[in-house]
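Subject: Interface between my chains keeps coming out wrong

I've been trying for a while to get a sensible model of this assembly. When I model each chain on its own everything looks fine, but I need the whole thing in one frame so I can look at the contacts. Pasting all components below, labels as-is. Any help appreciated, I'm running out of ideas.
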Amino acid sequence: MTLIVDCPTCKTKVTWQPENEFRPFCSKRCQLIDLGEWADESNKISQQVTPEVEMTEEMLDALEGEFLQHNKFFVEPE
Ligand SMILES: [Zn+2]
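Reply #2:
Try treating it as a single job with all components included. I did that and got this:
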């Protein structure tokens, strides 16, 4: 049985077989395009859910200090 799918990017008929490493895409190009679009979408979503809070230098310093306290193994010995 041969399964034929439409390339999600350009709608070319693609035969679903192990030899086609880019399935369900017809080519690496289409695969990359789709991944790029997916990344764009997730960027938009993460921008929407980001609370409108400006990170001040103080807040960043506090976060960094907290991080270092809880992750001493990251601090290089002198
Ligand atoms: Zn394609």
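Reply #3:
Confirming on my end. The beta strands are 3-6, 13-16.
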